[in-house]
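Pasting two entries for a bug report.
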Amino acid sequence: MIDGFDLDDFVTRVLAEDLGQGGDVTSASTIPADARFTATMNCREEIVVAGLALAEAFFRRLDPEVRLSSEVADGDRVPAGTVLMRLAGQARAMLTAERSALNTLQHLSGIATLTRRYVDAIDGTGATLLDTRKTIPGLRLLGKYAARMGGATNHRLRLDDGLLIKDNHVAVNGSVDAAVARARAAGSGLQMQVEVDRIEQIEPALAAGAERLLLDNMPPPVLRQAVALVAGRVPLEASGGVNLQTIRAIAETGVDYISVGRITQSAPAVDIGLDFALT
């Protein structure tokens, strides 16, 4: 489902965190061992779905014979009240898996839902929304998957995915020229992006060999100047302080990309519930 993601390990770790040493003592003490149930997983607000296969994996781990049917697909935008999944299986197992499955689905769908709002906000401008490495530690692959489901394009997954020379790299080297020269000498073969936060840094960065510019915390009037100055010589990415109220104006300056950390760093979980009907 997600390249490089170990689903079995994830399910094992998440369930171990929830079960502890004694397991689900409430279900074990109140639910007969042979009890069966049917259930529906429902969204209680409009969402963009992400993480259905992960949610299914928790139920399958505790009841390999559970009957599951996903009624929608990751990436779908669905209204409040939509049935996302139907389940039938062992009551104890499903009650035990419920919170792990819901937590995962609510978190990833929250990222996808917020991402889609940003994508919709810049529709028609020609700008592309990017995610960042501002993710919950240990959950980057999942966060970036959810951002894709919401319509964003993934930026760097890891530090080895691309060269991004930022202000602190420049400070250590003494100049943009020195930082870029040292990076080129390393011979990684990766695209070289350079961060600038002032118009006067643009030409030196390009002269040094920057193949892409990150325009950091520039207001729209300054971004327009940067777009005019660069005139298509390299792709331009705007970043810093972007929110739903400002992103449209940023996109309309003509930049190629806009990166937003908050879509993976602080997206609120969406409201999804599991409603049971014992048989």
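Entry 2 (this is the one that rendered wrong in the viewer):
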Amino acid sequence: MKPVQRRGQWQTAADVLTRVARQPGITRAAVAKELRLSTSTTTEVTARLRDLQLLTETPAPSQGRGRPTTVLRPHPRGPVVLAVELRQAGWQSAVVSLDGVLTDRRSKSHRRRPDAVLAALRAVVEDARAQYGDRLLAVSLAAAGTVRAGHLMQATTLGWGTVDLSPVVEGTQLPLLVGNDATLSGVAEARTGAAAGAGTALHLIVEVGVGGTLILDGSPASGATGAGGEYGHIPFGDRRLSCPCGARGCWDLEVDGRALARHLGDPEPEDPYTYAEAVLQRVTDPTVKAAVDAVVAALASGIAGLVNAHDPEVVTLGGLAIPLRAAAPATFTTAYAEGLMTFHRASPPPVLDSTHQETGPLRGAAALGFDHITTPAALAAWADRTTQSLSPAT
């Protein structure tokens, strides 16, 4: 069979697995309806996926009259992805199955030395490979910085310049997929979170600065080289201020703990996130309230500008953006409305708190991994390996 024909053989199977990943617990009947498949085709494809240890089927709850159907779930011996999140002060990891369940979670703080951090992550990969064997098909890394082609190009919160991340999987023959943490949080919200079902969604997360992504049909618009979504470096801020990224007037400098410190006359905090959390505990103080109002207005007006540019169906917020808005809701509402073009104001895109606030980067990284390992070509390779392992010895 020619390679093109072989990939075509697995396209429907890949589509079915994509539905299971994006809608955990989906029924076979719902898959058939959404993919416009006949009952016989759906039965045939799901049986093949079951035989190859990709799916299992359990009876769906009775819905009255009509043909019984089944719920599609990952096979207990099916493929898994190791998802890793690299943060400013630590990292966390989880092994993830097709339905997005996070298992074997680990976390540890670090001192920001690239070689030591990469060595620690490599040890996590080796442990997962030892435990899961050939079921582990990819490592997917969410990094707090600008990424391009497997490299961390710039991570001001880590104090890193360009870092090659490939040592994380060196010698394992596993693919390493790398994405920005805010971008992957947006993927998680679009797949199974607050923006699920939206064709166009904007996700923003405030930690040290602001990052995010525009999601189109569940996939991020990452730009020509994968470095898109750096919304914090749009010049929405004071052009007199120089950003660590090298640009001037960045929105980053107006919406996080550094901005709060500047408004309060404090020195720039070493840990802007923790500083901001502490400030928000004192919001009843009039001076603090004025600083919070200024930061929340800058956040809301910038969001309005992005809505004008992208026209999303929904906006989701993560990180400090959630408690900031909660601390000054009237200020947020007013600044958001005033920043919108007139035609948006009658029915503005709702701004929702994210569902996966703590686990968004891990879930988004896992989704990136499963996108990679459920392509038709990848499924054909899994089928070859599984068929050989299940064949009786001759």
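Dev reply: Rendering is fixed now. As a check, the viewer should reflect this: The longest strand covers residues 102-109.
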